[in-house]
Amino acid sequence: RKEVEQDPGPFNVPEGATVAFNCTYSNSASQSFFWYRQDCRKEPKLLMSVYSSGNEDGRFTAQLNRASQYISLLIRDSKLSDSATYLCVVSWGADDKIIFGKGTRLHILP
Amino acid sequence: DAMVIQNPRYQVTQFGKPVTLSCSQTLNHNVMYWYQQKSSQAPKLLFHYYDKDFNNEADTPDNFQSRRPNTSFCFLDIRSPGLGDAAMYLCATSSGKRAGAFTDTQYFGPGTRLTVL
After folding, report:
1. Which among A34, A45, A102 has the least Cβ separation from residue B42?
2. Contact criterion met (CB below 8 Å) for A104 and A36
């Protein structure tokens, strides 16, 4: 099982729709989780950290399911500007390890 | 204002000709990272500095070296670039104030796109 796995997509979603994607991780000792957004040929930028209690920032909601070892990202009322690649990032401190997923490509269609 | 700056943004080098990529930060962060990202792939961590402590990833080739002369600057040296080293090289920083180097938000520079002829 890969350390961090994401569905590469692309997800083609009409503007205004809700879209969700997951990221699974293999190391049960993982302690920090993030979603980063990366636009084409640009650097990754933090979208949100993922906490045990889940967190919400406007149209974006992130959840952590430790039992099943995955995190999720939900985007409501999607905008054209949400089109990007969404990278899942997992880290654990025991041996200072950080792993990026390959990303999920999202295309919002007008 | 740019917080993590990378120079140059585009670098062309010849096969086997040493090249140095530069990163600077205005955030006064303790941790600086170098990643390699190839097309449609995840960023791959090459190494990181926690203050002056250098941490090399086990699978980073010896061809890649790094220097951090002070808090603000970090360099990536590729001693003998091969065609397979063509990629985007991303520098990132994090505060390092929380336990463990990787538990904080990372701030990325715009990257240097390296072409090897």
Report:
1. A102
2. no
Q: Which residues contact B26 (CB under 8 A, 6 or more apart)?
A: B1, B2, B3, B5, B72
Q: First and final CA of chain A: distance in angstroms?
A: 37
What pLDDT score was predicted for residue A96?
64
Give the DSSP per-residue string, B47-106. Answer: EEEETTEEEE-TT--TTEEEE-SSSSEEEEEESS--GGG-EEEEEEEE---SSSTTSSPP
On the question of pLDDT at A110 being above 70, the answer is: yes
B99 is written with which tokens? 């336990």
Q: Tell me what pLDDT residue B99 has.
A: 54
In this prediction, residue A3 carries a pLDDT of 87
Helix (H) or strand (E) holding A63: strand A60-65
Amino acid identity, position B109: G
Give A50-64 pLDDT, tens digit per residue.
Answer: 988 889 999 999 999
Question: Distance from CA of residue A68 to its chain's centroid?
Answer: 16
- Closest partner residue to B103 (CB to CB) among A32, A46, A87 is A32
Q: Which residues of B touch A102 (CB under 8 A)?
A: 40-42
DSSP code per residue over A24-37: EES-TT--EEEEEE
